[in-house]
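Q: What changes when iron/sulfur cluster is included in the input?
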Amino acid sequence: MYDVHLSGELNGMYGKTHSADTRKLISSKVKEAVNSPEYILKRSKTMEKKKEERIQQEKIAISEIFYSLQGESRSAGKPTVFVRTFGCPLTCTYCDSMYANTGSDFRQMTVPEIMNKIHEIAPACKSICVTGGEPLAQPHIRRLLQALIAEHYRVDVETSGCIDISNYMCGKDATIYFTVDYKCPTSGMEDRMLPEVFAHVRRKDAVKFVVGSEADLQTMLSVIKQYKFTSAIYVSPIFEKISLETIADFILSHEELTEVRFQLQLHKYIWSPETRGV
Ligand code: SF4
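A: The predicted holo structure follows.
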């Protein structure tokens, strides 16, 4: 039996000029060697080892993982496991999760570690919300999304509108649903919105406007007219910054907004607005 590695002798023989019979013999010996059970086993162990090394290196910065009620969008009110990543390329004026954007309150976790944590805190829950920070800014987030889909989770991804979602859809039938923010003027981040992101929003996704002024409402109206979204569209107030009546009146006085759904962030009414992990 040949060594499970192709021997130097065999490799060396290829560099020389040989008769047709010798070439045939070399070829059959090489085939025999690479098809041997020992070679196949060793190759598969090497691949497994490389995969394990890759998994250990591909870490995601996690701010917190917790079980709560989804506070908004299409799954509002539903028990959900939240995976909050750390870090965001934006700095919205009204950000209520700055603890997940700056500082050092986070942990680098591998995908298996994140999956274990999800299994541990809510074994029966099949709804996940991947949020942030900006989850799509994590270089290995796609691995996590794929792992969740493989385990038949329904995955809501909350993203800020500044990163192209089309790279993270994981196939058209994947149970991944994006809620894409359009940052209005009050956020200070409107110039970071990428037109291609909104062009990629699908019927099964959602677009969300967080508004704090009349200018924000006007922006929402013009963006909706421009993109003609087929997805669900939500509008939320910046907490205690604009009257709920102003938003309601604006929606009802514009026929282009008949598909818009006005929503309040449920968790801010159940728990104190500053409470983390809810
Ligand atoms: S995109 Fe979200 S997480 Fe990032 S700064 Fe704005 S509100 Fe905060």
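Observations recorded in class: The chain has two domains: 21-57, 59-270.
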